[in-house]
């Protein structure tokens, strides 16, 4: 209450954008300096940490196919050439609900509305560390809710999020970089702003479990591994209408899927 509603778009003079842009420029400068020292060309264990070396050396274009077609606009939803929802655009809760329940990809070729089996899938993930270079822009990894509870819609590393992945007909025979998705929201925002059990019962949602082509690694998989079991059991209970002890009304944190995953040790 008393919380100032944020604008539905991120202005270029937003202080967080300035910070992220300065950080990006600093990272670029470090990269260039590192390259001049020859670390990119011939990385040795004693020169740089092996994990950092792997991240620097990995080129997504060697294992993933390019996106050759921009998804068409529908309703208020526009896309950029990377298949993302309009860069810097945030959406009202009602608009997110429309996106999730009325997406054109829910309609099968025969005209059947089948959201559990269509082309839109939601993956419950942890925001992976050391992945900034994989996003199309510095604003890609922001929660898309205009009423997001986090400052500047930031999704911090390690926090739980839900990835909106669109599998369009022209991409179904391709291997698309998982970072080229439609967008992200905090799992906590999705639970507090929408009827999450209903969403789990009716939409294609599940824990992140994709096997990525080598040498890429899926760093968005939740840890510990038992978190995937917790999420799957939660979704199954929603589908069968037997979910127990889920918060009602104002949706307090305790009892939510977010809470269950965070208390899983």
Question: Could you please describe the fold and organization of this structure?
Answer:
The chain has about 260 residues and is an alpha+beta fold. The protein is built from seven helices and four strands, in the order αααβββααβαα. A four-stranded mixed β-sheet has the order 3-2-1-4. The longest helix has 22 residues, at about 15-35. The radius of gyration is 19 Å and the shape is globular. The model is unreliable at about 1-15 and about 30-50 (pLDDT under 50).
Count up the helices.
7
The dominant shape is globular
Proportion of residues in extended strands? 5-15%
Tell me the Rg in angstroms.
Answer: 19 Å
End-to-end gap: 33 Å
Mean pLDDT: 83
What class, by secondary structure content? alpha+beta
Biggest pleated sheet: 4 strands, mixed
**Low-confidence runs:** 1-17, 30-48
Order of helices and strands: HHHEEEHHEHH
The quaternary organization reads as: single chain
Short overview:
Helix content is 28%, strand content 8%. By secondary structure, it is of the alpha+beta class.
Which key terms come to mind for this protein?
7 helices, 265 residues, four-stranded mixed β-sheet, alpha+beta
Task: Give the topology, please.
Elements: H1 15-36, H2 50-57, H3 93-101, E1 120-126, E2 160-166, E3 183-186, H4 187-193, H5 196-202, E4 205-207, H6 226-240, H7 257-262
Parallel strand pairs: 1-4
Antiparallel strand pairs: 1-2, 2-3
Helix pairs in contact: 5-6
């Amino acid at each position: 209450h008393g919380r100032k509603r944020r604008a539905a778009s991120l202005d270029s003079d937003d202080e967080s954008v300035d910070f992220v842009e300065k950080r990006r420029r600093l990272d670029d400068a470090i990269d260039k300096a590192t390259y001049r020292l020859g670390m990119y060309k011939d990385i040795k264990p004693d020169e740089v940490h092996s994990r950092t070396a792997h991240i620097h050396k990995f080129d997504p274009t060697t294992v993933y196919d390019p996106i050759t077609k921009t998804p068409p606009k529908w309703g208020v939803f526009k896309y950029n050439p990377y298949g993302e929802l309009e860069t810097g655009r945030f959406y009202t809760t009602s608009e997110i609900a429309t996106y999730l329940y009325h997406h054109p990809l829910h309609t099968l070729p025969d005209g059947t509305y089948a959201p559990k089996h269509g082309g839109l899938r939601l993956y419950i993930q942890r925001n992976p560390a050391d992945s900034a270079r994989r996003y199309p822009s510095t604003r890609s990894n922001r929660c898309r809710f205009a009423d997001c509870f986090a400052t500047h819609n930031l999704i911090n590393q390690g926090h739980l999020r839900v990835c909106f992945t669109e599998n369009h007909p022209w991409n179904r025979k391709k291997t698309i970089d998982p970072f080229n998705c439609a967008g992200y929201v905090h799992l906590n925002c999705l639970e507090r702003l929408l009827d999450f059990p209903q969403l789990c019962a009716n939409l294609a949602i599940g824990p992140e479990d994709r096997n990525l082509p080598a040498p890429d690694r899926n760093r968005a998989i939740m840890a510990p591994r038992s978190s995937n079991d917790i999420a799957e059991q939660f979704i199954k209970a929603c589908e069968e209408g037997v979910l127990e002890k889920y918060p009602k009304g104002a949706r307090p944190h305790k009892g939510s899927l977010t809470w269950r995953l965070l208390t899983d040790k």
